[in-house]
Automatic annotation (TrEMBL):
Domain Cns1/TTC4 wheel: 278-383
Any one cellular-component term (Gene Ontology): nucleus
Repeat is among the record's keywords: yes
Keywords: Repeat, TPR repeat
PANTHER family: TETRATRICOPEPTIDE REPEAT PROTEIN 4
Protein name: Cns1/TTC4 wheel domain-containing protein
Origin organism lineage: Eukaryota, Metazoa, Chordata, Craniata, Vertebrata
Length: 395
């Protein structure tokens, strides 16, 4: 029992606080911040642990990593540390703590299953779906009835749009927990999305099959007409040559022409197509006017139509603004195509069909777009343009 002398000492100690300020007390202005540095009062875990700023927390961590402690004890403490980070929504730090716990190689498989499941949750919130799925799989392998791992695995598969696998996770979980609402909801979502995914896949496959059929029909139609292409539009081997033995541009491998090779080189992206109703090919055609450095692009020129049909439309009632002298009357125009190999021009009658021009032995379609030069007959530019070139009539 305390005597009078003990009371006197206590009174003296209390009286001392009335006259002397306690040197180690919290600062009146920063006491909340200082208090938050003490582990027991912390509301959230710090991003980085500075030994000078958090000496008490460093001391606790040293206890966790004490070499005298068993791997299970260290792993358990690191798991709790990770959970604290997770609750504070510091998922990256949480994942690091769970990883450190797994490094301890605890023999407690239930604990390891929890660690994998918890780390899966951290990765899930970080958006690392594949890492989360790997961890959920590892947790399920250690503990097949781990509910959180089963749920997390189904969620990851759903996020990865692998709905078939999500269904497997849900079905596996529902065998163990048939009344779990979360698994039931996930399965309903996965089943619905899986049906939509299967339907879209069937549509895409049918569309691809249709496009392939159209492509094959188009290539056959081009081949049947004997229309030739410059070799640059087909895949080439190192042994290929631009010319055959007789000096003619090579047309070998025409059956290997791809739909891309028939695409127009124009920015419009137009390409030749086979009309299923009339069986005719419709080509993108380029008219070039070298005198004015102008051009016209016709996206759908039927092979059975003649050139005059289009020239009449282009130079009918409304003339192009660049034809200031109004010289481009359909009856006064001449058309040519160029044989680049022989540096020769072939004149094309304006009443000739496009197909007949394309079937000429010296016509080669370039970049999927037939092109023709248009000049004003008898004009000074026409005479000068043709003066240094070999010209033949289309036969």
């Amino acid at each position: 029992m305390a005597n009078d002398s003990d009371d006197d000492v206590m009174d003296a100690f209390i009286d001392k606080f009335k006259t002397e300020k306690y040197k180690n007390a919290f600062n009146e202005e920063t006491w909340e911040e200082e208090m938050d540095r003490i582990p027991i009062f912390m509301t959230k875990a710090p991003d980085e642990i500075d030994p000078k700023k958090y000496p008490e927390l460093v001391a606790l961590q040293s206890m966790i990593h004490d070499e005298d402690r068993t791997p299970e004890e260290k792993a358990e403490d690191l798991k709790n540390e990770g959970t604290s980070y997770f609750k504070a929504k510091k998922y990256k730090q949480a994942a690091m703590s769970y990883t450190a716990a797994l490094v301890m190689k605890s023999k407690n498989q239930d604990l390891n299953a929890v660690l994998f499941s918890n780390r899966a949750a951290a990765h899930f919130h970080l958006g690392n779906m594949r890492s989360a799925l790997n961890d959920a799989t590892a947790a399920k392998k250690l503990k097949p009835d781990h509910l959180k791992a089963l749920v997390r695995g189904a969620q990851c598969c759903t996020e990865l749009r692998n709905f078939g696998e999500a269904l497997k996770w849900c079905d596996e979980g529902l065998k163990l927990y048939p009344t779990d609402r979360k698994l039931q909801e996930l399965r309903a979502t996965a089943d619905k999305n899986n049906r939509v995914s299967d339907r879209d896949a069937r549509k895409a496959k049918a569309k691809q099959k249709k496009l392939l059929g159209e492509k094959e029909a188009l290539l056959k139609a081009v081949q049947d007409r004997g229309i030739k292409f410059l070799p640059s539009v087909r895949p080439r081997c190192s042994s290929d040559s631009d010319d055959d033995e007789d000096g003619e541009p090579s047309t070998r491998g025409l059956s290997q022409l791809s739909l891309d090779g028939l695409n127009s080189g124009e920015v419009t992206g137009a390409q030749v197509y086979l009309n299923q109703e009339d069986g005719a090919l419709y080509w993108p055609v380029l008219f070039l006017y070298p005198e004015h450095q102008q051009s016209d692009f016709i996206s759908t020129f039927c092979e059975n139509h003649c050139f005059l049909d289009h020239l009449t439309v282009m130079f009918g009632e409304e003339l192009p603004p660049w034809d200031t002298d109004h010289k481009y009357c359909p009856s006064d125009l001449q058309l040519f195509f160029e044989d680049e190999q022989k540096e020769t021009l072939y004149q094309v009658d304006s009443q000739t069909s496009l197909l007949r021009a394309l079937q000429h032995q010296r016509y080669f379609v370039k970049a999927g777009t037939p092109s023709f030069i248009v000049l004003v007959k008898g004009s000074p530019f026409c005479k000068q343009y043709l003066s240094d070139k070999k010209v033949h009539s289309l036969k």
